Fold:
Amino acid sequence: MVHSRGEEFLQVFKKGAEFTQDLLRENERLRFRLLELENGQLSGEAAPASELNKLSERIADLEREKQEILDRIKQVEEENQDFAARYIEIEDENNNLANLYIASYQLHSTLDFKEVLQIITEIIINLIGAEEFAILLLDEKSDELQAVSTEGVDRSEIPVVRLGKGIIGGVAQSGESHFAADCDAYERDFNAPMVCIPLKIKEHVIGVLAIYKLLMQKKEFAAVDYELFTLLAGHAATAIFSSRLYSDSERKLSTIQGFIDLLTK
Structure:
């Protein structure tokens, strides 16, 4: 469809250019003829007034037709620019959808807790463009959020946050994302991240993603970033929750098997 649309624009340009050249040649011929008749009148030769009027009207018609063609060409050029811009936008959307699909697939490709955290880290770096961030999970027994994985900062630098306290605790309690008003003016504060995204399964928050710094080439968030944040809020939470359940069950199974082994010896 893109190719056929492009061919259509090309044909319009060609026909418009050819027709404009024909009009210019005809216009030039008629103007020359009009000049001949006017010169004839000046030299004493009689020229029919009706012919002069017809030539003048024809020249005016050709001028109008030429202007219509030029206006049409301008309109087609504007349509072509809009089409090219839309094509680029669709290409970006397709690439973004592909990235979202790959990210979603990767998140659910393993039940190993460490691997899941590593995949989330790669998504945040490569697709969102964050340089410094932390993943904090909620301990429902103590109602505290603790960092389980960090990038660009040491895990010990990330404070333990009480549920409902500050920006991080507030996001974990409300389930609503937080974005700094001005990313350019933001200064790193471990208690008040630039971006804080809840990791939740339906309405149940299991942790948050706190971003403190973007990569140098990343100046602002694009539409796809917010789609990625939405994906991380759900899919990352599910992947983390599933991998933790699996790890816990593996440990319990190993413990039970150890007791069985002891009893049967």
The radius of gyration is 35 Å. Strands lie at 130-139, 144-151, 161-162, 178-179, 195-201, 204-214.
